[in-house]
Amino acid sequence: MIDFRDRVAVVTGAGSGIGAATAHLLSAAGADVVVVDIDACAAERTADDLPGRAIAVTADVSREEDVDRYLEAAVEAFGAVHLHHLNAGIAGPADPLPDLDVADFDRVLAVNLRGPFLGLRAAFRQYRRQDTGGAVVITASIASLRGSHDLLPYQISKHGLLGAVRGGAMYGGPIGVRVNAVAPGLVPTGLASDDLLQRGRTVPQRRTGTPDEVANAVAYLLSDAASYVNGEVLAVDGGAASVSSVRA
Ligand code: NAD
């Protein structure tokens, strides 16, 4: 049921890491893919490597005009958009709470929260124009599911995404649009620091994950195999979110 022939997919942050892995998987399963990234070279590289039809669009997901532009480019190239992986994100500062800068907070929230909001709104506007159903997956994080003492702006932004997923699911359900999230654990990419990845040893599966393992979950949620899954947050974290770091 993971067959994306005749489907058009937009993947943001697809220049590297998890987004690039999703773009590859969707393309291999038959989708036409719109590779969106703020890094023009990275977007071109991913699009060039895909086995199927693809275009690259350089866009900053935190900017309304850029989000409108990537959607217009997708429709111009392929006629419609059925699947969205709203994935672009940044880690932001790891300073202790009292030392955090408001400008840094705003920057993280702009990319990680306003970006998916703009992407979700643009997706729903396009579904209304097309009069089709569809599916959206947002990349949340295990930082959406539990507290920790570091990366506070990141953590706040990722918790906010749960509202986007649940509100989106409520809105989309009656019109045939499903909205879900994946919550990756520790995955070696450009975003995860070496320090963070050291914690892979404490994960129940005793290792970090791979971008492909997250992409598999994204593809499932976007596919008809998940046709009755809506408003769900699927942890892809080797069990990390389900264990407590506090010993009773
Ligand atoms: P990554 O840095 O490899 O990929 C992120 C991509 O997003 C990059 O190509 C970057 O250029 C792009 N990007 C950054 N800001 C952008 C913007 N404003 N507009 C458009 N594109 C932008 O990192 P990744 O780990 O693949 O991150 C993907 C998503 O996964 C993020 O939302 C991140 O928060 C989430 N995540 C990652 C981990 C992990 O351990 N790697 C864990 C949980 C969640």
Automatic annotation (TrEMBL):
Keywords: Lipid metabolism, NAD, Oxidoreductase, Steroid metabolism
Superkingdom of the source species: Bacteria
Pfam families hit by this protein: adh_short_C2
GO BP: any one term: steroid metabolic process
GO molecular function list: oxidoreductase activity
UniProt record similarity statement: Belongs to the short-chain dehydrogenases/reductases (SDR) family.
Protein name (database record): NAD(P)-dependent dehydrogenase (Short-subunit alcohol dehydrogenase family)
Source species: Pseudonocardia hierapolitana
